[in-house]
Design goal:
Layout lengths: L3 H8 L1 H27 L5 E4 L4 E4 L42 E3 L8 H5 L45 H9 L14 E3 L4 H7 L6 H16 L2 H6 L4 E5 L24 H4 L2 E4 L8 E3 L11 H12 L5 E7 L10 H10 L4 E5 L10 H8 L2 E6 L9 H7 L3 E4 L22 E2 L12 H6 L3 H13 L1 H4 L14 H21 L26
């Protein structure tokens, strides 16, 4: 007698087989898909609607000092209207380059510009005209055939923070989503703020804005991601002006860079200090080209210049500084007569703020002397590069230890180094030393100097270069690399505070740079 159950199954065997096969396929598909997604679980991505970018949601490292949200960023594959994958997906060129700009209260930037007449209290200088044209200053109306029309401005050397901020507003990889940003820019005009209170104000007043800034920043969610180590600011004064080491009323500057929160940030300025979280970027010159063709035209013009002077110096003596070598340089320049051109920048003499006067001298010179002044660095370094004039340095802190993102590491390729540690060690005869330089080496040095021109100018904020990187581009690239190196440390389980803001006592020592050439 047949079993009724098996009999029924056998009678419908084809349908039963199909049912089992269908269930098996469903299970297999589910297994394969879960395996695929499991492999991707470390790289789950979310598309940001505003920017078309990808936010990495990989779980953060188990460290209490930070929370990484964009250690690795991968673009999502693009799909068509049906949701099918498109072939030939374009990669987001801004991955690793996104910058989030803090919208600071106006007291930290905009109000300082609006109160420009107060920026130079105690002097007769009005800073307001220099803030025209997005910080470039008034356009030079009479270039006297020394400059190129429409590209040169009366730019104040202390307005880097304003110029940088305006250029950042046109940066191609800005984002309103801080979670995908590789860096956080803090547009605090620290130099302008300090200019308000340079003389006659106590330390409490001088430090007020700095204290207010770090309090504001530390309360923002962006701060807690890396405790400020992905934040950077830009200052238009030398970094030493923000490193007052005591609260003695007679001490200079503010203590911004010694505040605990500020130690976690990086600062870009016209001259760095000896601390590792300060970086130097070029002084603003007066040349702000709007097109690459203007730079190429200028470079060609500098190659064709007739240089009638062996060397030149634009500046003034510094008798108040015991070890200043400027007096010696001026004496030898005057003694060299037709071999040297001196542009006397003493108060009340030639207007050395006018680039027509400066460039006229530098374009006519083979070498331009660059001794330290009130500090290690000076804008004249970059003026001489613009003029195709080979810079002569006497201290490593004037350029070599400073502008590591903008000038070649091989300093002998573009400059002459005559180290002088102390005025008592001065044994140089400038005329004889420079006359001994072989002609073929002079030509090589000058060509390298002329090639550096695009790297040391801040191009027009209203346009974007087609092929060249300017000083702003290289500064952004440098700070992004700096912050990424901190992320690498965190991913490796290291403490990012180690070495981040340490002092480097050897940064400006002579031994690192040899005996000159």
């Amino acid at each position: 007698m047949e079993n009724p159950v098996t009999s029924k199954c056998c009678n419908h065997q084809p349908w039963f087989v199909l049912l089992v096969f269908f269930v098996f396929c469903i299970e297999l598909f589910s297994f394969d898909y879960s395996g695929f997604t499991a492999k991707k679980s470390a790289l789950v991505t979310v598309l940001d609607d505003n920017h078309g970018n990808v936010i990495n949601t990989q779980s953060s490292l188990p460290h209490d000092f930070t929370e990484i949200t964009n250690a690795s960023v991968y673009p999502l594959p693009k799909t068509d209207e049906k949701g099918d994958l498109k072939v030939g997906t374009e990669i987001d060129s801004c991955v690793g380059r996104y910058i989030f700009v803090h919208d600071l209260p106006s007291r930290f930037n905009e109000d300082l510009v609006n109160n420009c007449r107060l920026l130079t209290r105690g002097t007769d200088k009005n800073m307001c005209p220099y803030l025209d044209n997005l910080g470039f200053g008034p356009e030079i109306e009479n270039p006297e055939d020394v400059l190129i029309n429409n590209s040169w401005f009366l730019t104040n050397q202390f307005l880097l923070e304003v110029i940088f901020h305006n250029k950042m507003k046109r940066y191609e990889c800005l984002t309103n989503d801080s979670s995908i940003a590789s860096a956080i820019y803090v547009p605090f005009y620290a130099g302008l703020d300090m200019s308000l209170y340079l003389w006659g104000f106590n330390t409490t007043v001088r430090d007020s804005a700095s204290l207010g800034l770090v309090k504001w920043l530390s309360e923002k969610p962006e701060w807690k991601r890396m405790w400020g180590r992905d934040h950077f600011l830009v200052a238009g004064r030398i970094a030493w002006d923000f490193r007052r080491q005591s609260d003695n009323e007679t001490d200079w500057g503010s203590k911004l860079r010694f505040l605990p929160e500020s130690k976690n940030m990086s600062m870009l300025s016209i001259e760095s200090s000896s601390w590792n979280n300060d970086y130097a970027i070029p002084y603003p010159t007066c040349f702000h080209p709007s097109k690459d063709s203007e730079i190429f035209r200028w470079q060609d013009r500098m190659r064709r210049q007739n240089r009638q002077y062996l060397f030149s110096f634009a500046g003034a003596p510094r008798p108040e500084y015991q070890n200043s070598i400027r007096g010696k340089i001026i004496d030898q320049c005057l003694a060299s007569k037709s071999q040297c051109k001196l542009l006397d920048c003493n108060y009340g003499t030639t207007n050395c703020d006018n680039p027509v006067n400066v460039m006229k001298v530098f374009q006519s010179s083979i070498f331009c002397l660059q001794p330290p002044g009130d500090s290690y660095t000076r804008r004249s370094i970059f003026d001489s590069i613009l003029a195709g004039c080979i810079p002569v340095f006497f201290h490593p802190g004037t350029a070599y230890a400073q502008y590591i993102w903008h000038l070649p590491k091989n300093y002998t390729a573009y400059s002459v180094y005559l180290p002088v540690k102390d005025l008592s060690e001065w044994k140089i005869n400038l005329n004889e030393t420079l006359l001994r330089m072989p002609e073929d080496r002079i030509l090589r040095l000058r060509e390298e100097v002329i090639k550096l021109i695009p790297r040391v100018v801040y191009a027009s904020s209203r346009s974007r270069s087609e092929t060249l990187e300017d000083a702003f581009d290289l500064a952004v690239k440098g700070i992004l690399d700096r912050i990424e190196s901190v992320r690498v440390m965190i991913r490796e389980g290291k403490d990012p505070s180690i070495g981040f803001a340490d002092g480097d006592d050897y940064k400006y020592t002579f031994s690192t740079y040899g005996n000159g050439n």
